[in-house]
Amino acid sequence: MVTSSLRSQQADFGTGWQPLDLPATPLFGTDGIRSRAGELLTAPLALQVGFWAGQIMRQQQPGAIVLGQDSRNSSPMIAAALAAGLTSAGLEVWDMGLCPTAAVAYMAADTETAGGIMISASHNPPADNGIKFFGANGTKLEKQIQGKIEQALRQGSCDSAFNPGNQWGRTFQRPELVERYAEFLHQPFPSQSYLSGMRIVLDLAWGAATQVAQAVFEATGAEVIVIHGHADGSKINVNCGSTHLASLQAAVSEHSADIGFAFDGDADRVMAVDSHGRVVDGDYILYFWGQTLKQQGQLPDDTIISTVMANLGFERAWERLGGTLVRTQVGDQHVHAEMVDRGAMLGGEQSGHILCHHYSLTGDGILTALHLADWLKRAECCLPTLIDQSFDPYPQRLKNVRVESREKRRQWQACEPLQQAIVKAESAMGDQGRVLVRASGTEPLIRVMVEASDAKLVDHWTDALADVVSLHLAR
After folding, report:
1. Catalytic residue positions?
2. pLDDT tens digits for 280-292?
3. Spatial contact of 305 and 338, defined as CB atoms under 8 Å apart
4. The whole model's pTM is what?
5. Are strands 171-173 and 113-119 parallel, antiparallel or unpaired?
């Protein structure tokens, strides 16, 4: 229920808010509100989200709201509407402009604020956008608080613009906060030239990383080659970045680089490639970083938190080292929650979203890349050799099927033909493979993943299950 205090504020409204046509399914997915810009995610929605988020977040912790955005063409529109809603609720807004998601999280935690909001659809295509929320401690806003914001949108919105006794908030442009975040990235490392002698390629995906990544890496003394290196909202994530590694692989080979890093649109994820073009995903990053922390005695119970997507090859290799891998649902908020519950310090996702609580409470692709490069420099051994000495991943294939209906995606488990097909696949593979089908929390997709010791089994059952999804859910 909307609280009585919010309802009393609602009674003071004048006229002016546009009624919202909200879907019956939840607005908040695994990473905030996300959709194609101009459809669900409109300026009127962002205005009211800003107002109600401001009212509810300041009840948890008074202070300003830190606001950031990626390079998408729709981001300025959404930022303006959010800021209007926040200031109409009487809050001060610190607008950082173009910046990584981790910069918003860091500044929310490092200053006395009510929290932060990032406008980004992460790895999604340019036409999409999203709104991510952070609490005053720099972590993703708790589901309970997100639920209150959504409840207020559904039950408390009206044709209104709240004037709290003429106590309007103001928006301040704060680009210098991005510089403070960049300085923070170097703090874990001993000197300004800790990557001297390395040649590194950065794929900045035309996104938020373009604001800071090149300068940060050049400050380490490394030779830096940049591709997709300026902000371009019409190209963000298009055949580049952490989900499309071919151009990074080509650039690493062309420049004989030691390593290459690719970020997603808001730079909270990173994927790497070695000089042979092999992909170093989140599983490898967790394995290497976990080894280092384990040797230093900084990994409680030798435990790493990952998700159901983590490769079996990684899990079994980590167990051979005496470690424990704990799996959660997909989504960094699930990983973070499990880390907090267990007192774990390292966790993340195969997609390259890594959390190390020694340094940060949220995923930060640039910080992760710096740590991986520093580890490689100190290893005094080429990355291909280190990969050869780590583990052999099981063949694993992920196939996405576009399902436009939000209700069908939400209720996919009720599809009997799909459930029968999953049972058939699992029975055929036995203990030599596994199946994972899930609805994406960030895109209109059903994801089908099959992993097995035999690549032919992987291909057969991935295609078979994806065909069932297409036949019974995508139409």
Report:
1. 122
2. 999 999 999 999 9
3. yes
4. 0.89
5. unpaired
